[in-house]
Write a structure and sequence with these properties.
With about 60 residues, the protein is mostly helical. It contains 3 helices and no strands.
């Protein structure tokens, strides 16, 4: 079974962005690193856009 077959919701950009933002925020909070959630969301968006521009196929609408 392929990764996206097991977790098809990760091919949705909004869902992936939320999961990454929440994961980074909670991990940093556990390590007593204070960064606002909106700032983390901004960074996640920038990283995803950079990967998209490189041709990475994260999302269902991009996959052939």
């Amino acid at each position: 079974m392929k990764f996206y077959e097991k977790y098809p919701q990760l091919t949705e950009k909004a869902f992936l962005t939320k999961v990454l933002t929440d994961t980074v925020f909670s991990t940093m909070a556990l390590e007593d690193q204070v960064v606002s959630k909106p700032k983390i969301a901004e960074i996640v968006e920038l990283v995803l856009k950079a990967e998209e521009s490189k041709g990475s196929q994260f999302f269902a609408e991009q996959r052939i």
